[in-house]
């Protein structure tokens, strides 16, 4: 494996991590706001708050990790995407700021404030939408070079069915991932009502998810035929992803083994996400920037990989401790504080 | 409008984000150490007041962390959005400390989450202290690494440029650039100093407002002592920074000191106004002091601004920032020193109202000094983004709409700033120390 492939694999994996933990986080914020508006907050708010509180900051780091890592391994992306991404990037930042600060303001000070909860839920849905635009842009066709500098064609972007499909997919995926996870989590806390409600939401979003995902593959055929061809070459990954989706829905439907449902869901997204990523190879921004051209010098690459391994040696035990204390701690799950 | 120029607008937005972020970043670096110290003293003296102090500070800290995290994320991404050419070049040499900063931040975030949500899980206070160590360490490490990046921008190092192409990149050398030791040390010392004086200001304010509780007196004594130690450290490191500038960035030192002609036995100018034709009015002139500041010898030669081409000299306004920073620093050292000696020798006036008001004033003043110091350091290296290699004009984005985005961020920072104040006030107003201690004595720990 060459260093640039290692680099992009690491980054893609962290992006995948962000997609999963971020989705749980964003969706939870939305369901929280929705339950308040539909007067069901007594059912949901408790479990959502208990899950979110210790991890919201960690979720955010996954995102920072990704964009710092990209610039480190592929410095030229800073130039191309930085120039193009000013508006969607700034909007995502504004939404992240609103979300992060309102969450802290609400949780630690004025619990149950409707305005905060609403802003929190809404901004959570818009963040994946604004960030997913980068996926559309990387497909090519929206950027042209003017006086040696890349310029984004906003009109083409806003009128493209592909960009809207990706936006819709990102929102639906957020709601689906979050609902499946929270079904399992609510079940673990022993909260029957919350489990039933989240299960309902999970089943509701399962259909739209698979329809929009299929639709995107279809649209790529017209937008970027080369990419479409590569996707077809990896058909088995998407087929596996589909089977895992079926299995998840089946477990939810039968009300058994929610833990397995969560793992199947992770597997489903992993196959789709890596399948998409591999088929996009070797382009970072089609067709101007490839993984090979954009790669950093060798000395930097090696030192980044070393630091990455050392960093993981520090992170994995810490993350394990976090999960052990909150996600898998029986007394915490049931909402009691214990004394040791 | 000026904001229509992408270069100017990018500078404006970066200045705005950083000036706002460093308030929260300073708190983020300093408060964990103070919490840790309070927790440690609480355990050693078996005094519940200090344990409570740690918890109350931590509770307020969460609110500032939230804003610090989001503004930090903003500046992290804005670096690429507003300065794409710079990040493209710098990414090849300086990505290592940036990457390590994220790890330090990750580490801190995990343990902060654990500390905050295991409030009452452990009977043994030492376990809480153990959780605080990685938080304080992570906070210090992220300050360390991000300052390394900034010092690289001041003294680029660890690579060669041959025919416009970057070669021989050495990431480790780039990290250990000449500006690194003084910058990092000064940033850490002033952050700890500022936070100590901020917490002292809160304690003094509470005492002034009629709460005569011994808790506030303990808090005041402890933070003033810590503040004094770090303020002295900051001054000593500041002197080293002057010596560093004289060798590596003489134009910054010369601009900060309005030192135009190269001369031996150079005087130091304090205050004053700059008239037309660079004529200095009303300044306090201390003979030989600049030579001493620069090289430690009264007769040494200090390079003046005339040696540099005009398009490479920094704005002369940095002198005002320099004065502001140094004046506040010296004032705080005296304030804390007198307080410390005064409490030892039982001088009455350190408990007087006017003296406590001065301590209250010291909190915001210390933050002002932080801002002034950064403005001096950053404006003082104009027109360069990478000194001697890349100017800000070459680095800025070519994208339009930076002006529009700037306006959105101005609104955002106003909302976040007001939000923080409102929320923090509400957090502590309804739950004074007296109430919390009474609850704790009632048996059920809140």
From TrEMBL, chain A:
- Cross-referenced Pfam families: Cyt_bd_oxida_II (PF02322)
| Domain of life the protein comes from | Bacteria
Q: Where in the cell is it found?
A: Cell membrane
Q: Does the keyword Membrane apply?
A: yes
Task: Identify the InterPro entries for this entry.
Answer: Cyt-d_oxidase_su2
Primary location group? membrane
Q: Which residues cross the membrane?
A: 12-34, 55-74, 80-105, 117-142, 162-182, 202-220, 232-253, 260-279, 299-323
- What's the protein's topology in the membrane? Multi-pass membrane protein
In its keyword annotation, does this UniProt entry include Membrane? yes
Keyword field: Cell membrane, Membrane, Transmembrane, Transmembrane helix
User: What Gene Ontology terms describe where this protein resides (cellular component)?
Assistant: plasma membrane
Say which family it is in. Answer: Belongs to the cytochrome ubiquinol oxidase subunit 2 family.
What is the protein name for this chain? Cytochrome D ubiquinol oxidase subunit II
UniProtKB/TrEMBL annotation, chain B:
This entry carries the following GO cellular component terms, namely:
cytochrome complex; plasma membrane
The cross-references to InterPro entries, in alphabetical order and at most eight, read: Cyt-d_ubiquinol_oxidase_su_1
Instruction: Name where it's found.
Output: Cell membrane
Q: How does it sit in the membrane?
A: Multi-pass membrane protein
- What UniProt keywords apply to this chain's record, in alphabetical order? Cell membrane, Electron transport, Heme, Iron, Membrane, Metal-binding, Transmembrane, Transmembrane helix, Transport
One example of a Gene Ontology biological process annotation = aerobic electron transport chain
Q: Which GO terms describe its molecular function?
A: electron transfer activity; heme binding; metal ion binding; oxidoreductase activity, acting on diphenols and related substances as donors, oxygen as acceptor
What residue ranges are annotated as transmembrane? Answer: 20-41, 61-83, 89-117, 129-149, 184-205, 226-248, 320-342, 354-377, 401-424
The name this protein goes by in its record: Cytochrome ubiquinol oxidase subunit I
Organism listed in the record: Compostibacillus humi
């Amino acid at each position: 494996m060459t260093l640039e492939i290692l680099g992009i694999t690491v980054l893609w994996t962290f992006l995948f991590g962000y997609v999963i933990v971020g989705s749980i986080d964003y969706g939870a914020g939305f369901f929280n706001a929705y339950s308040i508006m539909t007067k069901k907050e007594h059912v949901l708010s408790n479990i959502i708050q208990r899950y979110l509180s210790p991890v919201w900051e960690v979720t955010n780091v996954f995102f920072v990790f990704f964009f710092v890592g990209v610039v480190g391994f592929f410095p030229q992306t800073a130039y191309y995407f930085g120039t193009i991404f000013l508006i969607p990037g700034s909007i995502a930042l504004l939404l992240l700021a609103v979300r992060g600060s309102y969450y802290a303001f609400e949780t630690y000070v004025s619990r149950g404030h409707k305005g905060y909860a609403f802003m929190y839920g809404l901004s959570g849905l818009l963040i994946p939408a604004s960030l997913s635009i980068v996926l559309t842009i990387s497909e090519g066709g929206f950027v042209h070079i003017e006086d040696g500098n890349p310029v984004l064609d906003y009109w083409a972007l806003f009128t493209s069915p592909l960009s809207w499909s990706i936006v819709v997919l990102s929102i639906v995926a957020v709601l689906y991932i979050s609902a499946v996870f929270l079904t399992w989590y609510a079940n673990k806390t022993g909260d029957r009502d919350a489990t039933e409600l989240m299960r309902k939401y999970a089943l509701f979003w399962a259909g739209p998810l698979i329809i929009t995902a299929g639709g995107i593959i279809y649209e790529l055929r017209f937008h970027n035929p080369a990419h479409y061809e590569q996707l077809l070459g990896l058909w088995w990954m998407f087929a596996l992803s589909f089977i895992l989706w079926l299995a998840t829905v089946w477990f939810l439907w039968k009300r058994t083994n929610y833990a397995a449902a969560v793992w199947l869901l992770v597997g489903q997204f992993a196959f789709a996400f890596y399948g998409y990523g591999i088929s996009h190879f070797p382009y970072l921004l089609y067709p101007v920037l490839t993984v090979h051209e954009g790669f950093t010098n060798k000395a930097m690459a090696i030192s980044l990989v070393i630091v990455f391994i050392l960093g993981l040696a520090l992170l994995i035990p810490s993350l394990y401790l976090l999960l052990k204390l909150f996600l898998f701690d029986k007394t915490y799950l049931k909402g009691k504080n214990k004394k040791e | 409008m000026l904001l229509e120029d992408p270069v100017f607008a990018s500078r404006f937005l970066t200045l705005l984000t950083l000036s706002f972020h460093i308030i929260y970043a300073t708190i983020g670096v300093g408060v964990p150490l103070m919490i840790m110290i309070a927790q440690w003293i609480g355990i050693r003296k078996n005094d519940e007041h200090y344990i409570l102090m740690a918890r109350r500070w931590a509770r307020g800290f969460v609110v500032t962390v939230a804003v610090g995290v989001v503004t930090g994320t903003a500046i992290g991404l804005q670096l690429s959005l507003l300065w794409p050419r710079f990040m493209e070049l710098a990414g090849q040499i300086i990505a290592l400390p940036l990457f390590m900063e994220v790890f330090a931040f990750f580490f801190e975030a995990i343990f902060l989450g654990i500390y905050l949500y295991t409030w009452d899980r452990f009977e043994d206070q030492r376990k809480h202290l153990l959780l605080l160590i990685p938080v304080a360490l992570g906070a210090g490490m992220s300050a360390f690494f991000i300052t390394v990046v900034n010092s690289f921008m001041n003294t680029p190092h660890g690579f060669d440029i041959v025919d416009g192409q970057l070669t021989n990149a050495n990431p480790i050398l780039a990290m250990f650039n000449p500006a690194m030791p003084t910058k990092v040390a000064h940033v850490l010392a002033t952050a700890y100093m500022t936070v100590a004086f901020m917490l002292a200001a809160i304690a003094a304010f509470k005492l002034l407002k009629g709460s005569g509780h011994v808790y506030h007196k303990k808090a005041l004594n402890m933070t003033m002592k810590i503040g004094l130690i770090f303020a002295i450290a900051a001054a000593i490191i500041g002197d080293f920074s002057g010596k560093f500038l004289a060798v590596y960035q003489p134009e910054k030192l010369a601009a900060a000191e309005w030192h135009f002609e190269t001369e031996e036995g150079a005087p130091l100018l304090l205050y004053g106004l700059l008239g037309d034709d660079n004529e200095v009015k009303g300044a306090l002139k201390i003979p030989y002091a600049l030579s001493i500041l620069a090289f430690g010898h009264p007769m040494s030669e200090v390079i003046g601004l005339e040696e540099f081409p005009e398009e490479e000299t920094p704005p002369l306004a940095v002198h005002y920032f320099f004065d502001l920073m140094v004046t506040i620093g010296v004032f705080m050292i005296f304030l804390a020193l007198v307080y410390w000696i005064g409490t030892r020798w039982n001088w009455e006036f350190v408990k007087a109202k006017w003296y406590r008001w001065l301590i209250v004033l010291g909190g915001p003043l210390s933050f002002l000094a932080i801002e002034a110091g950064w403005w001096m350091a950053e404006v003082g290296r104009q027109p360069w983004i990478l000194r001697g290699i890349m100017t800000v004009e070459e680095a800025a984005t070519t994208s339009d709409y930076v002006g529009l985005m700037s306006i959105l961020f101005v609104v955002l920072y106003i909302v976040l700033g007001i939000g923080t104040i409102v929320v923090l006030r509400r957090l502590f107003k309804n739950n004074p120390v007296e109430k919390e201690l009474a609850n704790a004595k009632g048996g059920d720990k809140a």
